[in-house]
Specification:
This protein is 42% helix and 15% strand. It contains 16 helices and 13 strands. It has helices at 14-28, 43-49, 67-84, 94-103, 126-140, 151-159, 175-179, 187-191, 216-226, 244-253, 269-275, 290-297, 328-340, 342-353, 362-377, 388-395, and strands at residues 2-6, 32-37, 54-57, 88-92, 111-116, 145-148, 167-168, 202-207, 233-238, 260-262, 278-281, 302-305, 320-323. The strands form two sheets. A seven-stranded parallel β-sheet has the order 3-2-1-4-5-6-7. A six-stranded parallel β-sheet has the order 10-9-8-11-12-13, sandwiched between helices. Helix 3 (67-84) packs across helix 4, helix 4 (94-103) runs parallel beside helix 5 (126-140) and helix 9 (216-226) packs across helix 13. It is elongated.
Length: 398
């Protein structure tokens, strides 16, 4: 099949990792895969996968709402869709989901799929929530198949009346990489430990892009209140993003520089996880976070805000703790209590090691997604189907 994926931001974050993994599986199984994305992509993806995926930058496809550029983006996508004549248009992320699905009307024979990586109307004001839901309901008219990163995320879409059914497909990742991780070679440098020192501080790790919704700064403020109780602790932040400088400024302002290490973007997240005693995520909005699965695959207990779908991987009190999403001090206190209670921490670590993460295996993501395409195509109205022999010849290699 000829498959087009559409997203606005092509960074190195969860939804992009999911999308790229799907694209790679499809390309490796004989499909012609094109990824349309907005401006300023992370060059990593093209550098590493440009030989298997065709990347096309759409300058008008920006993340913020901009009526003029959004209109131009729709027109640009309409032209490209008409030229490429894809079998499948798969949109990702909220903004690209609306723009891409509106443009899809120019190719009525294409199957139109929307991937729900996050609930855009969760954790926002009442007016913004109403706007997002209305926009999603409108775009749903042009959608043949909804795929969500968790059952709970999909259920939220059906509960508010956007669609009748959503298929869950969990994020895929190379799990063995996390199960067999070893300490990073520079662990002493990251923790500020002298070569001859026999001990190291306790470590709390957060892998997260520096975005406002990840709430690094709010966490640091809450953490500063409990630091006197656990002075020998090191916070590791790994990632990059638009508000990193603000996070760094907050560390200085709160006097936390001796306790916080900025690791930058790391290509060895599994090594950082192996160094941690506790792994956290403080986001106010997520789908079902890939990083939480990675924490547990590494056998590390987690503390994470109560997000939609999180109960599908985190068992509160068994392999981690679920904190109050509206009270960051709850997360800080849970960290303090665990680090002071070694037996409780060991019990959660044991539960993390026993967590079943097989649903998140990398090969399942692309395979299941593509299976759903074919099943949905079989139910398209006759007027929208291409000649059977064309579809058969294109899909036979998969």
């Amino acid at each position: 099949m000829r498959i087009i994926h559409v997203l606005t931001r092509l960074l190195r974050a969860g939804s992009e990792e999911n999308t790229i993994a799907t694209c790679l599986w499809q390309a490796d199984h004989g499909h012609d895969v094109i990824l349309l994305h907005g401006p300023d992509p992370d060059p990593h993806w093209l550098d590493h996968h440009g030989d298997r995926i065709h990347f096309m930058e759409i300058p008008e496809l920006v993340h913020p709402i901009n009526p003029l550029r959004d209109y131009r983006a729709v027109k640009t996508l309409q032209r490209l869709f008409s030229e490429i004549r894809p079998d499948v248009i798969h949109t990702h992320q909220s903004k690209a989901g609306i723009i891409g699905r509106l443009a899809s009307a120019t190719v009525p024979c294409a199957l139109v799929v929307h991937g729900i990586h996050i609930i855009p109307f969760d954790g926002v004001g009442r007016l913004k929530r109403a706007f997002y839901i209305s926009a999603e309901k409108f775009a749903a008219r042009y959608t043949d198949l909804f795929i969500a990163v968790s059952r709970s995320v999909g259920q939220t879409y059906t509960d508010v009346g956007i669609c009748r059914h959503v298929e869950p497909v969990y994020s895929g990742m190379p799990l063995e990489r996390f199960r067999s991780a070893v300490l990073p070679a520079d662990w002493r440098h990251l923790l500020g430990v002298e070569p001859a020192s026999p001990s190291r501080p306790q470590v709390v790790l957060m892998l997260a892009a520096y975005e406002p919704r990840k709430r690094h700064i709010e966490f640091l403020r809450a953490f500063s209140e409990i630091l006197p109780d656990i002075p020998d602790v090191r916070i590791l932040f790994a990632g990059k993003g638009p508000v990193e400088n603000k996070v760094r400024a907050a560390v200085e302002e709160l006097g936390l520089a001796p306790n916080v290490t900025f690791c930058g973007f790391r290509s060895d997240p599994e090594a950082l996880i192996s160094l941690a005693d506790i792994c956290i995520l403080t986001s106010e909005r997520e789908g079902l976070p890939r990083v939480v699965v990675q924490y547990l695959a590494s056998g590390k207990p987690v503390i994470v805000a109560d997000l939609p779908g999180i109960e599908e991987i985190v068992q509160n009190g068994v392999n981690g703790l679920i904190s109050d999403p509206d009270d960051m001090s709850d997360t800080a206190k849970k960290i303090r209590d665990l680090l002071k209670d070694r037996s409780a921490l060991a019990s959660l670590a044991d539960g993390a090691k026993r967590s079943d993460v097989s649903e998140w295996d990398l090969q399942r993501l692309g395979a299941r997604t593509t299976e759903l395409y074919l099943a949905a195509m079989a139910h398209l109205p006759e007027s929208r189907r291409r000649a059977p022999e064309v579809l058969q010849s294109k899909s036979s290699s998969s």
